[in-house]
Structure to design on (119 residues):
């Protein structure tokens, strides 16, 4: 679990099938010493974990990624230059699980778009 150490969330709003929050990244986290020294970048796997943890909070249960039909990394997140990122996760029950669309962005810059299914 990355929440509480790698990032914290604030300004969380939740409606039926949608959760939005502002993520505050911890630029001093040890992961950035290796990814990459003197030029920190949030790893894609961490972005996916943030989406997963946000979804789990919304549905109040553990979930596991079953299928990623779209996972686009459009811009790098430098936690020093972009210490805050907005996340929006839309989800709905489907016969195959939870159909999810998520976006990580800040102002006009989109960092990641995701579509997939969690169970």
């Amino acid at each position: 679990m990355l929440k509480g150490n790698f990032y914290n969330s604030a300004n969380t709003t939740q409606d039926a099938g949608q959760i939005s929050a502002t993520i505050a990244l911890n630029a001093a986290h040890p992961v950035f010493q290796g990814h990459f020294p003197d030029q920190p970048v949030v790893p894609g796997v961490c972005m996916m974990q943030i989406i997963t943890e946000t979804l789990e909070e919304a549905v109040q249960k553990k979930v596991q990624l079953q299928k990623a039909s779209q996972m686009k990394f459009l811009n790098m997140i430098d936690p020093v230059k972009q210490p805050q990122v907005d996340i929006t996760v839309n989800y709905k029950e489907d016969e195959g699980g939870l159909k999810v669309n998520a976006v990580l962005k800040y102002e006009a810059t989109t960092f990641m778009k995701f579509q997939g299914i969690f169970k």
User: Anything to note?
Assistant: The two ends are 18 Å apart (CA to CA).
